[in-house]
């Protein structure tokens, strides 16, 4: 079966090369027909698991389309070549080709397709290169933002923010989450703004910047529905506990369902949050309902808290 497909592919390449030849009676190559034959050859090679040869056939298809000024089809062929590199586990090269294809989509006047290509490239490279994936998601978000498609833009920006947190690039994550929050406000998705405020506070506290965390909450009071919401109350309790070095209160809030069931990268920030000077210690079980109310254990610990400051 594989041998038959390989022979079929070579037949299509021979036809394509014939279309590209010129003669006394044929002054211009038939790029359109050649591209179609190269595409058929690529599919045949792919079915025979000959990915290197399939990639080369897609390259030739892209070149024929480019010569025919059919940039959209050229970009599609480059993306397909990139997929062959992906199947060969050559992810970095695959992403480079998809990036090149995305630029051709933009040049062709189809920016939405360009953004979707960058998103695909980001997913491919994410397991092996977080920094590259962040850049690709940010580029894709920018393309959608320029097209005033904020819902698509903010989704991609969210991917970049989570990866920045995972990479512990918290200063950049704080900026990225703020941009997300602004977009969600613009499209009037206020409940998601509340969640972004939680993410902001967690990032700022991990940056040891209590002032910035407090400012995020205070600024969010202007968002319709935030004041008095469960998100708002939880954040007020968290900041109060953090400011007063009340480990039990911080532990209780960070282990509540509201925080534990956030996106995984933010949930990890909540679970790993420590009060400065308090360190990490074993705790007797504390129910979320205990809140800020002082137990006898807390009162005994408070006797020593002043000496640690």
Automatic annotation (TrEMBL):
GO terms for biological process: intracellular protein transport; vesicle-mediated transport. Residues 277-309 are annotated as: Disordered. One of its GO terms (molecular function) is syntaxin binding. Keywords: ER-Golgi transport, Golgi apparatus, Membrane, Protein transport, Transport. It is found in: Golgi apparatus; Membrane. It is a peripheral membrane protein. The keyword Transport applies. Residues 298-309 have a biased composition (Acidic residues). GO terms for cellular component: Golgi apparatus; SNARE complex. Belongs to the SNAP family. Required for vesicular transport between the endoplasmic reticulum and the Golgi apparatus. Interacts with RAB11FIP5. Interacts with VTI1A. This is Gamma-soluble NSF attachment protein.
